[in-house]
Amino acid sequence: MSAEEPMFRVVRGVPTAEELAALVGAIVVRTRPVAAAAPPAVSRWARGTRPAGAMSTAGPGAWRASGLPR
User: What does the pLDDT profile of the chain (70 residues) look like in tens digits?
Assistant: First the structure.
């Protein structure tokens, strides 16, 4: 494939610039490696407000454990 050769072509219709941009964006997202889609890191500030581990499970004493420090 040469540098002059297009990567894809429209075979039917006349897409607008916005439609072509959406198509290119979809192709770029689909061709990224799976490892690049890692979840964003959560700051310690935000993490402190979320229940985690045993505190987020229901059961005897769960209401008491929800108020205890981690």
Answer: 566 887 778 899 999 999 999 998 988 888 877 665 667 777 777 666 555 554 456 778 777 777 766 6
With H, G, I as helix, E, B as strand and everything else as coil, classify residue 60: coil
Residue type, 8: F
Q: Helix, strand, or coil here: 70?
A: coil
Contact 55, 66 (CB under 8 A): yes
Residue carrying the six token digits 């407000």: 49
CA–CA distance, 9 with 51 (Å, rounded to integer): 50
